[in-house]
User: What shape does this take?
Amino acid sequence: MSDVFASLVATLDAAWICLEEAVDDPGSPARTPTLATVGRNGAPEARKVVLRATDRVDAMLTVHTDLRSAKASELVAEPRATLLFWDHTRALQIRVRAVAEVRSGADASKDWAALPPKARENYGVAPRPGHEINHADDYALQPEPKNFAVLDFRMDEIETLHLGERHRRARFLRHDGFTGLWLAP
Ligand SMILES: Cc1cc2nc3c(=O)[nH]c(=O)nc-3n(C[C@H](O)[C@H](O)[C@H](O)COP(=O)(O)O)c2cc1C
Assistant: This one.
């Protein structure tokens, strides 16, 4: 078998295949990356999200959220973010440094229209996400397109780490066309 992770071109291709499969396959380990943002007062924040779409040509990733969530307001204040993926089946970590755009309202109406009814419930919790409630179930699900936000991540850097007999670490930068370079693991 050829050693995919000894080639920069093949490594980047493997990373994209991993991300693309994650969108299509609900069971994919890469489907739920950790999204890290700069939180209030500059403290780091991290949480799981679902990867909804990829665009290999423009090097973009898409996530859906509630516009009223902390992550959405954090990304408006500081659009730089990291998405971290771990696919244990490939022994592959993918670390994406990106700049986010938060789309909502008319700019997200096509995305909202494409959502199944059940998925829309994720964007209609009342009171707003993170609001303190008296009892565990003191909330309602009222899908509201105005609460829906699309997070578009422009990938500026893709860093891969493959764990194998020899660990292989590579960095691919947008500003040089994602040509790639090797890093000591
Ligand atoms: C497996 C998993 C997937 C999740 N996917 C999303 C998601 O796609 N979008 C989202 O807003 N929250 C998602 N969540 C919930 C977030 O992790 C988080 O708890 C919530 O959005 C509040 O985060 P915030 O206060 O930092 O905005 C997911 C949680 C888990 C455990």
Residues 32, 45, 47-50, 63-66, 69-71, 129-130 surround flavin mononucleotide (CB under 6 Å). The mean pLDDT is 96. Residues 8-24 form the longest helix (17 residues). The chain has one domain: 4-183.
